Amino acid sequence: MGTPSGTATKVHLLRHGEVYNPAKVLYGRLPDYHLSERGRAMAQRVADVVADRDIVAVVTSPLERAVETGQPIAEKLGIEPGLDEDLIEAGNSFEGLTFGVGDGALTKPRHWRLLRNPFRPSWGEPYVEIAERMRAAMERARVPAAGHEVLLVSHQLPIWTVRSAIEGRRLWHDPRKRECSLASLTTFTYRDDVVESIAYSEPAADLLPDADASFSAGA
């Protein structure tokens, strides 16, 4: 088989590292949620793993946890990181609350109206809008970096939503089945303007909360 024609460009979507959140609230877009000790170690691990990649731009969501995840990566690559508002976490009406059956927001009748349409979803930013803004951020980074690689730091729901859109899957889903762990990379390889393949990797798999007992829970 011959070599594929056209320019190959890679867009890596990196989910931020673990956040210090001892109260276990849904922090969403709230300010002042920073990486935990484990989260900083995750960011450094990713920096070490991608150090020899042809990454010419690092762009992050404006939220602290994303900026802090991108910083050591940009430093390792010798790049000044940028910000893109379109990489931000999804808007959610349950921000600041604990969320669960029996112990959180779902036990309060005043919140039930927000759950009327899980396919949109009715409690937050529509999936279609999330996918559109994420695609826009990916294009803004990809086009000037044609032939190279870019790394964008975002959040689990936006990353999974845009991946689902590009793969042609329905956007509503079971959150427990997202393939997007902390500090994971979802890599889109473009051939010219078309996504040729999508790959997933977990550079910090051994640092995930269930994998490494050397970090205390919630650190």
From TrEMBL:
UniProt organism field: Phytoactinopolyspora halotolerans
GO MF, one annotated term: phosphatase activity
Record protein name field: Histidine phosphatase family protein
Gene Ontology cellular-component terms listed: cytoplasm
Record-linked SUPFAM superfamilies: Phosphoglycerate mutase-like (SSF53254)
Any coiled-coil regions, as ranges: none
Pfam families found in the cross-reference section: His_Phos_1 (PF00300)
PANTHER family named in the record: BROAD-SPECIFICITY PHOSPHATASE YOR283W-RELATED (PTHR48100), PHOSPHOGLYCERATE MUTASE (PTHR48100:SF51)
